[in-house]
Amino acid sequence: MKSSILRASAVSLACALVLSACGGGGGDLTLGGAVQNVTKDGLVLQNNGGDDTAVVYPYTSFQFSNRVSTDDQFNITVKPGAIPSNASECHVNNGKARANYYSIYQISVACTLKQHALIVTVNNSTNVGFTIVNGADKQDVKPDATSVTMSPVNEGAPYGITVLNPPAGHTCTVSGGSTGNGSGTMGPVDDKTVTVSCK
Amino acid sequence: MKFSLARPALALAITVTLASCGGGKATFPINVTVTNLQYPGLILSTNGMDYTVNPPATTGQDVTFAFPNAIEYGQTYDVIPKGQTVTNGTLTALGAQPAHQTCSSPTFPKSGTAGQLAKIDIHYVCAVNTFPLTGTVKGLTGTGLTLANGSTYLPVTVSPALDSANAPTGADVTLTMNPVPYGTTYGVTVVTQPTGQTCTVTGGANGTGGGTMDDAAEKAGGVTNLVVTCVKSS
Fold it and tell me: Do B123 and B140 sit in the same domain of this protein?
């Protein structure tokens, strides 16, 4: 254990000496980490107020191009105003520390996505209730219901309404949404475009 | 005189203390915590003891227990779902798992020797089993088809089959949606239509791409009968 630490620090010291000797002040540690809840472009991170780095597709990780040296102070922040348009806020966890082989692996970024209501209009002349689903989100439709509010959907996420169990002997059709068949992508406001008709 | 009295008294005190912890040897209870257990059926086993773990009265709470007999310093333990077998490092039998769930001990060691650690704390985490949601896309020649199962996952993109000259053939293409956990509903819909075509979803338990991953679907190994039929847009 001790010897491996000694060896690691000896190696990094040697590297630092070599690097400084040839004028490369960049260091040998890469700053980066995991990203959560980012689904589109727009997020820009900074280190010590500069070195702008955009989080790009598939939006699961980030990495600064400028490397740092052991014991350099890093302070990773979200560039003011530079968050994806469908996020309400983004924050950096463990973004401020002195660089070493532990601290550089503790950094992560998480955003909170905006959510909007998905409200389905119901035209039901059967006097029988049924159930509609948006994937795993299941909502009962009472016989006299004229609208049903589904669980909120993240802005930019898909949705697709289907009738799980049409009333026996009746047919139900789903219309609306951006495809016209009850499916679409959640926009920047509540979505009230989907209609379920049973007769 | 005083000393000779004090010494036997001390010896007696030591004997009493030792006796209280089991005849002079330290013993170690095997404590277990099980997280996210929702269904009955889990039996954990170690050192010849079986313990049937029932789901908590309040959904979401951890279940904690200790095996009936503590073990002595130096004894080894290995807490496994009863009957679980590992052959050449590969899990060959899951053992007595709860219905619809699989429990494992991914981050903490489930085996060791009593006395290695001050306290034996085993941690099992249970996950609801997921099942495939798959099918076939028929007649697809256009590009850009995406399908979704609600809002939980990103849409799945399906590209047409191509011949050696990279022209679309319209041959059947396999559709693989994200697996669905037991007990939840699914409803597969077209989110974006391919260029020049209109696709409709059939199959699933209700015939229109929807249903519930219920006991029947679990028994069948998932839902594999989705059919997406694409025709030229009128």
Answer: no
Domain that holds residue A161: 115-198
The pair of structure tokens assigned to B222 is 């998932």
Do you know the residue count of chain A? 199
What token pair was written down for A192?
């009230």
Residue in the block written with tokens 């996505």: A113
Q: How far is CA A30 from the centre of its chain?
A: 23
B192 at interface of A, judged by CB pairs closer than 8 A: yes
Size of interface A-B (CB pairs under 8 A): 92
CB A133, CB A162: distance < 8 Å: yes
Residue A4 within any structural domain of the chain = no
**Which of B130, B189, B214 to mutate against chain A (most A CBs within 10 Å)?**
B189
The answer to whether B129 touches B102, Cβ cutoff 8 Å, is: yes
State the residue range of the domain holding B185.
130-232
Is the model's pLDDT at B9 over the cut of 60? no
Distance CA A35, CA B141 (A): 36
CA–CA separation, A141 and A134 (whole Å): 13
Q: How many CA atoms lie within 13 A of B189 on its CB side?
A: 31
Residue type at position B170: G
Alpha carbons B175 and A183: distance in angstroms, whole number: 18
Q: Which residues contact A7 (CB under 8 A, 6 or more apart)?
A: none
| Alpha carbon separation from B220 to B41, B132, B216 (Å, rounded) | 20, 10, 6
- 0.90 surpassed by complex ipTM: no
**Chain A interface test: which of B133, B145, B151 (most A C-beta within 10 Å):** B151
| Same domain? A64 vs A81 | yes
Domain check: are A155 and A102 in the same one? no
Look up tokens 């209730």; give the residue.
A129
Distances from the Cα of A72 to the Cα of A25, A97, A100, A143, B163, angstroms: 11, 8, 8, 66, 56
Query: What percent of chain B has a predicted confidence (pLDDT) above 90?
Result: 74
Task: Answer for the pair B139, B170: CB distance below 8 angstroms, yes or no.
Answer: yes
Of A81, A98, A113, the residue that ends a domain is A113
Residue A148 has pLDDT above 70, yes or no: yes
As a whole number, mean pLDDT of residues B140-146 equals: 95
All residues at 6 or more sequence positions from B175 whose CB lies less than 8 Å from its CB, including other chains: B134, B135, B136, B137, B147, B156, B158, B226, B228
Q: Which of A137, A179, A181 sits opposite B150 (nearest CB)?
A: A137
Order of strands across the sheet with B30-35?
Answer: B63-66, B30-35, B120-128, B101-104
The string of pLDDT tens digits covering residues A7-44 is 555 545 444 444 444 333 478 899 999 999 998 899 99
